[in-house]
Amino acid sequence: MEIRLFGTVNDSIVDGPGLRYTIFTQGCLHHCPGCHNPQSHPLDGGYLEDCDKILAEIFNNPLLDGITLSGGEPMLQIEPLKYICQEVKKHHLNIVIYSGYTYEQIISDQNKLSLLKLGDMLVDGLYVEEKRSLALLYRGSSNQRLINIQESLKQGKVIEYIIDEYGEIEI
What is its EC number (predicted)? Predict the structure, then answer.
């Protein structure tokens, strides 16, 4: 199975907690003004990569805490990302998903929900340039939320992670 990528980062410490392998998907329909990755917007841009090659890179690094799905918009490439996430879960790595869609929009779409269910943390919402802050943990603008996916699904409401006075996530 192949996925269209903007790129990957083998050892990120800014795309979620711990050491992460970040997958930047190609294609985004949101076109947020001030987007950090505007080159990732064209649906036919980037390059095709074999999902098993990505998994080999992930499993080749025993220091990883998890993977991050970013973009572009990951919700536009659900099937290859579900395959990757299902394999990653077998190795007990956590999964962070960035999406311009809100949690509420995602859970109302069964296809998007099928990918969300595999994740641990969701950074949701469009990037809003007027709400930009460099002080936000893992987010670009203050409207975006850090959501505990599994607790939110279990409780039937959005459960956000709490950030302590040191800028760390309280679990």
Answer: 1.97.1.-
Tell me the per-residue pLDDT of 63-112, one tens digit each, with 9 for 90 and over.
999 999 999 999 999 999 999 999 999 999 999 999 999 999 999 999 99
Domains recognised in the chain with CATH numbers: 2-170 (3.20.20.70)
From residue 57, alpha-carbon distances to 52, 54, 98 in Å are 9, 5, 21
Distance in angstroms (rounded) separating the CA atoms of residues 103 and 107: 6
Tokens of 103: 């949690």
| Mean pLDDT of the chain, nearest integer | 95
Tokens 């340039």 label which residue? Answer: 129
Q: Number of H helices and number of E strands within the chain?
A: 5, 9
Burial zone of 88 (CB within 10 Å; 0-12 exposed, 13-18 middle, 19+ buried): buried
Pairing of the two strands 47-50 and 2-12: antiparallel
pLDDT of residue 29 exceeding 80: yes
Q: Around Cβ 153, how many Cβ atoms within 10 Å?
A: 17
Q: Max Cα separation, the chain? A: 43
